[in-house]
UniProtKB/TrEMBL annotation:
It comes from Novosphingobium aquae. One of its GO terms (molecular function) is malate synthase activity. This is Malate synthase G. Monomer. Residues 15-75 form the Malate synthase N-terminal domain.
Length: 691
């Protein structure tokens, strides 16, 4: 890697070129101001960053010692909480307050709907996510198992399935906007609507439903009302991810992610790809123009409102070297560079707008407690100062996915109270941290049992109640986690209604199609009305949240149960790691042990690796049993990927296989059980071998 000196920092040449030739022009920020600003930020914040990480290790060591002295499930909850307060793990609750965030776009503050998360390194994927604001209900029903009807047959359009799709869409319209037909027949319509040539637009629960009218269309010509499609406003927001769903280990990777984010902020990102033997080019959708019955015209935003997820406080990156030769904390670099890209949107330098309120939206993951949230708030203050932005232009989404944050959530929100725009539950990472925090308590219960454990129920409910108590409703998002099975839309439609019912005004989905289907849930009920009802409900106790998922003392599993658990974990680890290490794919649909495609990222990897490490540490299994599980599942994963021409088998001295084993056998020593340090190490080794 070639470096260039910038304000005493050694900056990778490709990053310097990106900043100076692409990201800075037009922003009003000079090259000198940017680099000197980054240098000053590193001088100020790198020592604090290191101190916060050291504090994590100090607390973990104290908790480990307590569990060694008090093995098994918590027997004295009062004594346990007193210990956590004594060491500073639990802090005092702040006095009642409401967040003061201003200039928040409606998609975040006053609307409720699905949210997409997409890897920043894939230009086609990020364009698909940005364009998922509007989706065809006909297509979503026709192409998935959400429709309870016979699958399509033959190579062309199946009229029988098509008729079932139209009937299902009509049933949805009848439920959401009874009497909607009157808007098309000239009768008195009980709903306000807008129209244009070829379309009628309704609004329900703050979301829009468009009826596409085209009597020349293959579908519309046979429809009594000429309806060719029903289009739903779907993914109101999308997160362009630089963290868990990407494999970004050096300057080359970071510049790719930054380039795509800048293209979105400017509106000029394009992606070309081959489909059906032809070259296709994808761009951002424009806004949608409408006319009311009284002749007044208006436009609707054509794209999802975009967040960018920076990395957390742990990882460093060789894209910039500090004066002492050490790598820059990656989250510090992300904060300044992604905000700089956002200035292009604020200054209207491109062809499309993201925020109409003049805000830059950054998601900050994997923070442990209010001190780390305070660090983020101060860092964003400093970024705004370098870029000449008004205070609190840079908004923050706090992911509630680490145990110390969950236990101190109100204090965490208070630390960023004037810039916070979302909290959400990430139960996968949260489970990984739960296991690592209580690693010395004893063997954990089986993974499948985790989902119904007391702490998860309390965690999900406390997140909503604390968010409502801090005044997030009407100002910010309260979100829920991902539906991980993109091919199981029928199950999603049954289960994911639980998220808006719980008071969440957004929840993650794995694809634009899933966003269209999940949008129907927000027509079934008014989330903000639910939030008003729930605001007076009690917050589940801290006792339930801190009930660790350790098995009872002396519990033994049958040999077959141990084998099943190890193989399930090993298969999940290998299926994800082999793509991460060998191909640099940070998130994809990976077949599980039953060949069901699941969206996997580092959060799921953290659970599986920590669970195996826990059972090994406590003697539930042996090293030989784990190696046997890896050997058996390597053959299965190889078979599952046999059709991939880029796939390399998991055998011999495979770097991916080494990485998978290290995640388990070095699992106890990994900071908070995170997988990133080992993944980065082995990915860099693989990239070096490929050169």
């Amino acid at each position: 890697m070639t470096y260039q000196n910038r304000a005493g920092l050694q900056v990778a040449a490709e990053l310097a070129q990106f900043i100076e030739a692409k990201a800075l022009p037009g922003t009003g920020v000079s090259t000198e101001v940017f680099w000197s600003g980054l240098a000053a930020i590193t001088d100020r914040f790198v020592p604090r960053n290191r101190d916060l990480l050291a504090r994590r290790d100090e607390l973990q060591a104290q908790i480990d010692e307590w569990h060694r002295a008090n093995p098994g499930p918590i027997a004295d909850m009062g004594g346990y909480q007193a210990f956590l307060r004594e060491i500073g793990y639990l802090v005092a609750e702040p006095a009642p307050f409401s967040i003061g965030t201003e200039n928040v776009d409606a998609e975040v503050a006053t609307m409720a709907g699905p949210q997409l998360v997409v890897p920043a390194l894939n230009d086609r994927f990020v364009l698909n996510a940005a364009n998922a604001r509007w989706g065809s209900l006909y297509d979503a029903y026709y192409g998935t198992d959400a429709l309870d009807a016979a699958p399509a047959t033959g190579g062309g359009y199946d009229k029988v399935r098509g008729a079932a799709v139209i009937a299902a869409a009509r049933a949805f319209l009848d439920s959401a906007i009874p009497g909607w037909e009157a808007a098309l027949t000239g009768d008195d319509c009980p709903h306000e609507y807008a129209s244009k040539d070829g379309g009628v637009l309704f609004t329900h629960n703050g979301l829009h439903i468009e009826l596409v009218i085209d009597r020349d269309h293959p579908i519309g010509k046979d429809d009594p009302l000429g309806i060719a499609d029903v289009v739903l406003e779907a993914a109101l927001t999308a997160i362009i991810d630089l963290e868990d769903s990407v494999a970004a280990v050096d300057a080359e990777d970071k510049v790719l992610g930054y380039t795509n984010w800048l293209g979105l902020m400017r509106g000029d990102l394009t992606a070309s790809f081959q489909k059906g033997g032809q070259t296709m080019t994808r761009t951002l959708e424009g806004d949608r123009e409408w006319t009311m019955a009284d002749g007044a015209s208006f436009s609707l935003h054509g794209r999802s409102l975009l967040f960018v997820r920076n990395v957390g406080h742990l990882m460093t990156n060789p894209a910039v070297l500090l004066a002492d030769g050490s790598e820059i904390p990656e989250g510090i670099l992300d904060a300044l560079v992604t905000s700089l890209c956002g200035v292009h949107d604020l200054k209207h330098l491109g062809t499309h707008r993201n925020s109409r309120k003049g805000s830059i939206y950054i998601v900050k993951p994997k923070q442990h407690g209010p001190d780390e949230c305070k660090f983020t708030n101060d860092l964003f203050d400093a970024v705004e100062d370098v870029l000449g932005l008004p205070r609190h232009t840079v908004k923050v989404g706090v992911m509630d996915e680490e145990r110390r944050t969950s236990a101190n959530l109100a204090a965490c929100i208070h630390a960023v109270k004037d810039r916070i725009v979302f909290i959400n539950t990430g139960f996968l990472d949260r489970t990984g941290d739960e296991m690592h925090t209580a690693m010395q308590a004893g063997p954990m219960i089986r993974k499948a049992a985790m989902k119904s454990s007391a702490w998860i129920t309390a965690y999900e409910a406390r997140n909503v109640q604390i968010g409502l108590g801090c005044g997030l409703s009407g100002k910010a998002q309260i979100g829920k986690g991902m539906w991980a099975a993109p091919d199981m839309m029928r199950d999603m439609m049954v289960q994911k209604i639980g998220h808006p019912k719980a008071g969440a005004n957004t929840a993650w989905v794995p694809s634009p199609t899933a966003a269209t289907l999940h949008a129907m849930h927000y027509h079934q009920l008014d989330v903000f009305a639910v939030q008003k009802e729930q605001a007076s409900q009690p917050t589940p106790s801290l006792d339930a949240l801190l009930t660790i998922p350790a098995a009872p003392l002396g519990h033994n599993w049958a040999d077959e149960e141990v084998r099943e658990e190890l193989e399930n974990n090993a298969q999940g680890i290998l299926g994800y790691v082999v793509r991460w290490i060998d191909q640099g794919i940070g998130c994809s649909k990976v077949p599980d042990i039953h060949d069901v495609g699941l969206m996997e990222d580092r959060a799921t990897l953290r659970i599986s690796s920590q669970h195996m490490a826990n059972w090994l540490h406590h003697g539930v299994c042996t090293k030989d049993q784990i190696d046997a599980a890896f050997a058996k599942m390597a053959a299965k994963v190889d078979a599952q990927n046999a059709s991939d021409p880029l796939y390399e088998k998991l055998e011999g001295d495979s770097i991916a296989l080494k990485a998978a084993r290290a995640l388990v056998f070095e699992g106890l020593s990994q900071p908070n059980g995170y997988t990133e340090p080992l993944l980065h190490r082995f990915r860099l080794e693989k990239k070096a071998a490929q050169r």
